[in-house]
What we know:
This protein is α/β, with parallel strands linked by helices. The protein is 42% helix and 12% strand. The chain has an eight-stranded parallel β-sheet. Strand 7 (227-231), helix 9 and strand 8 form a beta-alpha-beta unit. Helix 9 runs parallel beside helix 10 (282-303). It is globular and about 50 Å long. Bound molecules: zinc ion.
Amino acid sequence: MLPFKLVYHPGYDQNLGEHVFPSHKYRLVRDRLLADHVAAPEDFAEPAPAPDEDLLLVHGRAWVERLRHGTLTFYDILKLEIPYSRQMVTAYWLAAGGTTLAARLALRDGVGFNVGGGFHHAFPDHGEGFCAINDIAVAIRRLQRDAAIQRAMVVDCDNHHGNGTAAIFARDPSVFTLSIHQLNNYPTKKPPSNIDIDLEDETGDEEYLTRLREACAPALTDFKPDLLVYVAGADPYCQDQLGGLTLSLEGLKARDRWVVSTALMHKVPVAVTLAGGYAVDLNDTVAIHANTARACKEVLQRVGWKHRRR
Ligand SMILES: [Zn+2]
């Protein structure tokens, strides 16, 4: 049995068919973790869709209603880059509920793992780049509203800059945002995070890990968050179709181990979200995400977790 819960819902799949965003990957990650005996069926927890009130802590009412009622404009859909469907709406509401649940479970267990989410390109009043609802921001705002946490840190390791998250928390001193990403890639406009690590094309394992460690460790020590949300994108992988970094499978696993162990050693619980992953071979994307769960298991067994009273 895992020392933490995996949050998953079959409704995470938007059934996008041949789209570059393989939205059935969530089910494949779940199946892989079960087949490899990393997890057992009882290790999974099913989220409820986030209530609209939670979404409204981050998003404007007009955007939430356009999504709910299917009244997106042509321009809205163009920016989102995915077709509108009821399944798509359900999937985003579930992802936000899932990351919120994972964050709650992280406070209890040290790690909470959403086998989904990480939709960091969603802004308060519009969506972009396959992201309609910013589940990361919704989870943080909801836990703050419940006084379960005061301060949160987002460590965004997706290949692409976390523009939506950076914009949402730009003027909020209670949330620290860090993004490590390929500079010459989507999004063109990158609203500043608290720390932006801009990487050149084809940056590999060693430089990536060095730059991440050098920036992230002091920030974690100084900021002292009550929760870290780890956006564990699989797309810095060398075989990714939408990424231009060249991390190896081992490099990505070393990244996961470092983020999770450093947070836990600072007594900061970690909520994990999957974010992007568009490898030429979908099996690689699935392996990278499954490895993140393996890394959490190894680290939690090694470092342990003692519930910190606030
Ligand atoms: Zn990405």
